[in-house]
Amino acid sequence: MAADLGARGTARQATERPHPATDKAPLVLSGANVVMPTGTVEQGRLIVDGTRIAGAAPENAHHIDVTGHWLLPGFVDIHNHGGGGASFTSGTPEDVLKGIHTHRLHGTTTLVASTVTGDMDFLARRAGLLAELAEQGDIAGIHFEGPFISPCRKGAHSEELLRDPDPADVRRLVDAARGHATMVTLATELPGGIDSVRLLAERGVIAAIGHTDASYEQTVEAIEAGATVATHLFNAMPPLGHREPGPIAALLEDERITVELINDGTHLHPASLQLAFHHAGADRVAFITDAMDAAGFGDGRYMLGPLEVEVADGVARLVEGGSIAGSTLTLDRAFKRAVTVDRLPVEHAVAALSSNPAKLLGRYDRIGSLEPGKDADLLVLDSDFDLKGVMRRGEWVVDPQLG
């Protein structure tokens, strides 16, 4: 919540005044722990020149002392349904931009907009609207979560609108996205599931296994067909069993799979998160928010597609049935929990929040690390891992608060 952040003194929205990073003068941030792909550089420095990270600082550069702080690459969220009171599935373009900005205030500099199950005609129209925002550079793509999911594991999706993943229907949504379909979540055991995975792989769209009731063997078949992501691993799928290992075992053991995890303390027990990191390794985990409208906004009643959701104490559940309905998570909270509660190395948390999802999106040449030549997407955190500043493409979204 932007207002709350300002009230606590942890960050504030950037003002309209010129700033060294936005008036074309190069900027040098020095003295911080800089997290790089090869490890953390203590007392390091980072140079921003225009919209990019530079390798050398010219004489006219402005200098900011960030001693005692951390510099991280901007977070990349590949699964996000909204925030700031706005839904990516049903809101106006202005609403969507509001939700995007809410997450930027919390460190997410690259975001894929996710939809929830709906009527096919509606989803096709929605894809067109979101495609325009992708063309403007506001979002990194579109993720269709539903309607091609299992009624046995539907979670917060309307059962009446679910359908089998017929390749013709899958192709229709991908085409409606005009080249900006990034990912489609499928219950690949349903009729048409494997053929749809092959179709998506051929079109360069990520096929994600999720909201599934598949067996271990069925999941292996889907991976062999080209699936590469586990949609919020552990959630909305059969539990790991000693005689029926189900999809979790297949997804954890295969090096081709990136596993999404919702690290909010509600969706996963800490031991489950540790299990995923132990078996998949730090280079195959992507932290996501799976956020809905209430993220960065507050408790109350919301709509998730056609379903009513009650958010209480930051936990979203369907009014009817009580199923968890997405999250109110922001990635700055996921990061802090990872390093302070889960005790992950900072470098592993950064991989899960930045480099791994950037690689999955095929954008690691531009985002996901603080290497020279990449977009100047960076975060300033204090020694307690609270967010203090957010820069996106050389512009401060949140002015650094260093006092």
TrEMBL record:
Primary enzyme class: hydrolase
GO biological process terms held by the UniProt record:
N-acetylglucosamine catabolic process
Catalytic reactions on record: N-acetyl-D-glucosamine 6-phosphate + H2O = D-glucosamine 6-phosphate + acetate
What InterPro entries does the record tag this protein with? Amidohydro-rel (IPR006680), GlcNAc_6-P_deAcase (IPR003764), Metal-dep_hydrolase_composite (IPR011059), Metal_Hydrolase (IPR032466)
As cofactor, the record names: a divalent metal cation
Q: In which pathway does it act?
A: Amino-sugar metabolism; N-acetylneuraminate degradation; D-fructose 6-phosphate from N-acetylneuraminate: step 4/5
Which SUPFAM superfamilies does this chain map to? Composite domain of metallo-dependent hydrolases, Metallo-dependent hydrolases
List the catalytic residues: D290
Identify the stretch(es) annotated as Disordered: 1-24
Q: What note does UniProt attach to the cofactor annotation?
A: Binds 1 divalent metal cation per subunit.
Please list the residues that bind Zn(2+).
Answer: E145, H211, H232
Source taxon at top rank: Bacteria
- Keyword ATP-binding annotated: no
Residues at which substrate binds: A156, N235, A236, R243, H267, I324, A325, G326
Query: What are the residue boundaries of the Amidohydrolase-related domain, all occurrences included?
Result: 71-397
Q: Which UniProt keywords apply?
A: Carbohydrate metabolism, Hydrolase, Metal-binding
Q: Carries keyword Hydrolase?
A: yes
- EC identifiers of the protein: 3.5.1.25
> Molecular function (GO) terms listed?
metal ion binding; N-acetylglucosamine-6-phosphate deacetylase activity
Family from the record: Belongs to the metallo-dependent hydrolases superfamily. NagA family.
Protein's name in the database: N-acetylglucosamine-6-phosphate deacetylase
